[in-house]
Amino acid sequence: MTLQLPENRVLLPILAAVIVAAVAVGGWGVSQAVRAPQAPKPSEPTFPFLCDKCGALFDQPRSALSDETFAAMNSPQGAAIDCPKCGAKSSAYMPTRCPACGKHYISDSARGLPPSSDRPARCPHCGVDPVVWQIQHVKPEI
Ligand SMILES: [Zn+2]
Ligand SMILES: [Zn+2]
Fold this sequence. Notes:
By secondary structure, the protein is an alpha+beta fold. The chain has a domain at 46-137. It is built from three helices and six strands. It has helices at residues 4-35, 67-73, 130-137, and strands at residues 46-51, 57-61, 80-81, 92-93, 96-97, 104-105. A four-stranded antiparallel β-sheet has the order 2-1-4-3, with no helix packed on it. Strands 5-6 form a two-stranded antiparallel sheet. The structure holds zinc ion (ZN) (2 copies). One zinc ion is lined by residues 98, 100-101, 103, 123, 125-126, 128.
């Protein structure tokens, strides 16, 4: 009999308990990973464009846009791309959706034109100015 045996008798059950716990946790982790729903693949973002020539409204995926176009879309100058429907060059712009009638139109800012007080950005379909419409119909959050 040495002094280590009693220690082992105490340590072994603890060690066994730790192993059991580790296996349980490991198994739980695996089952969680299996049960977790597969994260959906991020779908490629698409961007709406409206052709000024033929009026076609279509979505372009990011991969169909050149880096120059994508940069222009995010700049005040705006971006114009070739229309895939009628073939017009640099005729399709990112449209504005009228909040009143729901139709799309190309605003001056989308064409890269500076805002002008003589030319209010009204919807060509119903004549509503979206900024005025928002003020009249959308209650500000307090
Ligand atoms: Zn077109
Ligand atoms: Zn409208």
